[in-house]
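step=encode ok
step=design start
structure_in=
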């Protein structure tokens, strides 16, 4: 069975972070490896504490995890510190890991810092190693420096992030007004992936970026194209949100 490596923080609710990643990877019939970058304390709507692991621990976790099985894809979420981003970049290079999906987690929806400020520049330096970066419109604006302006702004930000080294960019459209349209840019063409707006509470939407990027990584691990993976990930996420609504 193929393996997907999740590198993410632990959210004990399981709605976001490494637990959500593992559940998603498992739902696609693949085996998760979960390297933990931080431990958080939170409810579905508020992160009260987020403590990153040390860079030396992260390096050991990565080293041992890939001895178990070489991953077919890698999903990167919360990293916490600039030093952790540097360790990860060196590790990916040294081990020639492929199919790298970066969900650039910087702050939680409730405003908690999940990557220290000086880590943002390191995250930008990670882009040349990345197969697909999956920012929402806020993260895309922050990383690219292109002002948020609906779909037009998202397309400009996608071009800028491609220029910064990411081989493919998917700006997720959940934060857009109106229909949630994801914008995929491969350096040549834009593809708009339309979705349905599912009315849901803030809590039910917690961790949707984590689930989306894990679903994308799972599809890429199975050998699907980026476009097909992006469509499958969006459909999977819609089903998860519907299921959560029924539970709430
Ligand atoms: O959804 C972003 C995110 C990612 N990873 C962890 C989180 C959160 C948001 O709270 O806690 C561990």
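sequence_out=
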């Amino acid at each position: 069975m193929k393996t997907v490596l999740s590198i993410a923080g632990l959210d004990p609710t399981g709605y976001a972070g490494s637990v959500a990643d593992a559940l998603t990877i498992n739902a696609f019939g693949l085996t998760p490896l979960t390297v933990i970058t931080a431990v958080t304390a939170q409810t579905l709507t508020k992160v009260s504490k987020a403590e990153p692991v040390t860079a030396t621990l992260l390096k050991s976790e990565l080293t041992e995890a890939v001895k178990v099985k070489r991953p077919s894809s890698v999903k990167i979420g919360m990293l916490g510190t600039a030093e952790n981003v540097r360790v990860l970049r060196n590790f990916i290079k040294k081990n020639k890991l492929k199919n790298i999906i970066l969900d650039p987690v910087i702050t939680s929806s409730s405003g908690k810092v999940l990557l220290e400020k000086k880590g943002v520049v390191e995250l930008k330096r990670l882009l040349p190693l990345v197969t697909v970066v999956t920012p929402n419109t806020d993260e895309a604006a922050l990383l690219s420096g292109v002002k948020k302006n609906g779909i037009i702004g998202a397309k400009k930000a996608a071009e800028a992030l491609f220029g910064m080294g990411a081989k493919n960019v998917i700006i997720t459209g959940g934060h857009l007004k109106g229909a949630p349209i994801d914008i995929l840019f491969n350096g040549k063409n834009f593809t708009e992936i339309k979705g349905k707006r599912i009315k849901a509470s803030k809590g039910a939407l917690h961790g949707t970026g984590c689930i989306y990027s894990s679903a994308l990584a799972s599809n890429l691990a199975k050998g699907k194209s980026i476009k097909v993976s992006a469509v499958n990930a969006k459909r999977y996420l819609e089903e998860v949100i519907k299921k959560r609504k029924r539970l709430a």
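step=design ok
step=annotate ok -> Residues 226-247 form the longest helix (22 residues).
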